[in-house]
Specification:
Helix content: 55-70%
Number of helices: 10
Radius of gyration: 34 Å
Largest sheet: 7 strands, mixed
CATH superfamily of the largest domain: CorA soluble domain-like
CATH class of the largest domain: Alpha Beta
Number of strands: 7
Mean pLDDT: 85
Order of helices and strands: HHEEEHHEEEEHHHHHH
Shape: rod-shaped
Strand content: 5-15%
Length: 368
């Protein structure tokens, strides 16, 4: 049996792929008053980097309980947990003295980037950004970082990717600065890598903007408008994640917590400078997209004006032949020149010559 055709559904299915209404829902439909439920990770990976100036112990643990001995061991410990489970997070939080409110933030989703100091623990939450080349969209992964006395614990959502490989490489180098400094310097390196990766994502968006600008100038179409709309949505995601990180980094700069050494303060100022630069660049991108949208609209209007001008010229050129044909086509008994042998040919010639003379006059006056 044939299904009943629904024109409204067919139209909706055509519009969504072009203008990306589903992406709009993902970006804007976030209600902070509703606590969303996080799905438990099917796979959890735990890596520990326990080091001092001379030694580095790198281990992959099978469960969270194996990470508990790394508290107060007179070495710097970085515990990186990929994949979040409520029981695992509560277990390690209880052992390392992390407040339940911090645990709630770690397990939440769609949180605004922020920084807190709770009972001798410094906590920051922000997003790592990735650019999906297939979907041409910015993907977000929330990361929570806890700084305590001689330890840093990072909680990530996705076990398959992060931006910390350069840091792991530096940790393996004897005599590197990170091996000689405290846990606060390790936290700085984590933040610095996350912020630096923002520029990688912005570079991808910048390439899209360049291609789109050339397309709008040369061969704009409805697809061009759809792409402009898509890029503007991704800039919303970018700006939403960049702006709060300025406040987050500034919180570390102004903090007088004993976990932060005074000599590390200048490094957090460097991260702050980077995030301000990234935010300013995102504002520039936004201005470019607004100008590009205006350019697209102006091109459409210009094209419409060209069409209307051609139609007006054709109408004006056809007016004299229409008038002549109307006069000599009237049903009167006596019409001048109606019985002349060359009357028909003279009339047709007049119908052709008058528009030609009009074209010459229009051309001289620069009307087209």
């Amino acid at each position: 049996m044939l299904k009943e055709l629904r024109p409204d559904k067919m139209l909706k299915s055509l519009i969504q792929p072009i203008f990306g209404s589903q992406r709009t829902k993902e970006i804007l439909h976030i209600n902070p008053t509703i606590i969303p439920t996080r799905e438990e990770a099917t796979e959890v990976q735990i890596y520990v980097y326990d080091y001092n100036q001379k030694e580095l112990a790198e281990k992959e643990l099978s469960n969270v309980s194996e990470a508990l001995p790394y508290v107060n061991n007179n070495r710097i410990s970085w515990i990186n947990i990929n994949g979040l489970r409520k029981t695992d997070t509560e277990l390690i939080a209880g052992h390392f003295g992390i407040h339940p409110l911090v645990v709630e933030d770690i397990l939440s989703i769609h949180q605004r980037p922020k920084m807190d100091e709770v009972e001798g623990i410094m906590f920051c939450l922000l997003n790592m950004l990735y650019f999906n080349s297939e979907r041409r969209s910015v993907e977000v992964e929330q990361i929570s970082i806890v700084l305590g006395k001689d330890f840093v614990i990072s909680f990530q959502e996705d076990a398959s990717r992060d931006v910390f490989n350069p840091l792991r490489h530096r940790l393996k180098m004897p005599g590197s600065k990170i091996r000689e400094r405290g846990a606060d310097y390790l936290l700085y390196n984590l933040l610095d890598l996350i912020v630096d990766n923002y520029f990688v994502v912005m570079e991808k968006i910048g390439d899209q903007i360049e291609d789109l600008e050339e397309e709008v100038i040369r061969r704009h179409s409805k697809r061009s408008l759809a792409r402009i709309n898509q890029v503007r949505k991704e800039l919303i995601v970018l700006k939403r994640n960049l702006a709060p990180v300025r406040e987050l980094t500034n919180g570390f700069i102004r903090s007088e917590n004993e976990l932060l050494e005074e000599r590390t303060n200048k490094y957090f100022k460097d991260v702050y400078d980077h995030i301000v630069q990234a935010y300013d660049l995102s504002e520039n991108y936004r201005d470019v997209m607004m100008s590009m949208q205006d350019l697209y609209i102006n091109n459409v209007n210009l094209r419409m004006n060209e069409v209307m001008k051609v139609m007006a010229i054709v109408t004006v050129l056809l007016a004299p032949p229409t008038v002549i044909g109307g006069i000599f086509g009237m049903n009167f008994d006596r019409i001048p020149f109606s019985h002349q042998p060359l009357a028909f040919y003279s009339t047709v010639a007049a119908m052709l010559l008058i528009p030609i003379l009009m074209l010459i006059v229009f051309k001289k006056r620069g009307w087209f």
